Amino acid sequence: MKGDTTEPTASAQPPSALGRLLYGGVLAYMAVDGFRNNEKRVEVARESDVPLPEFMVPLATGLLLVANLGIVLWKYPRVSAAALVVFFLGTTPAIHDFWTMEGKERQQNKINFLKNVALLGGAVVLLSEAGDRRS
Asked: HEC profile for the chain?
């Protein structure tokens, strides 16, 4: 209505379960793959000058896994979504710094960088949804 300044009230229902499962499936795969290939990822982190890579890589992978479970189950959704935002903001530019690379390596890292930016966008949307809902 014209002149109506009231804001719509948020539903107590969590966002789409199917959407959360699809998003969560990708993140679960990333976390499991991260644990399976920990040594390789530690070496990549070391080459990217990540401090304490032997500690930081498994910590970041664990953060990804736990935060993902929080999103899928919609438990502590604000904390879970915020943790995903931190994960993607921290790891994406540090590991997929395609602008410092050439050739095939550059292209592969650019694709992974952009994929992570899209996943970051999803985490921001979930953070917004968690903040708008009483959960």
From this structure: CCCCCCCCCCCCCCCCHHHHHHHHHHHHHHHHHHHHCHHHHHHHHHHCCCCCHHHHHHHHHHHHHHHHHHHHHCCCHHHHHHHHHHHHHHHHHHHCCHHHCCHHHHHHHHHHHHHHHHHHHHHHHHHHHHHHCCC
For residues 87 and 67, is the Cβ–Cβ distance under 8 A? yes
Over its C-alpha atoms, the chain yields an Rg (Å, rounded) of: 17
pLDDT band at 79 (very low <50, low <70, confident <90, very high): very high
Q: Indicate the domain borders of the chain.
A: 17-132
pTM of the model: 0.86
Packing angle between helix 17-36 and helix 103-132, nearest 10 degrees? Answer: 140
**Whose structure tokens read 């915020």?**
82
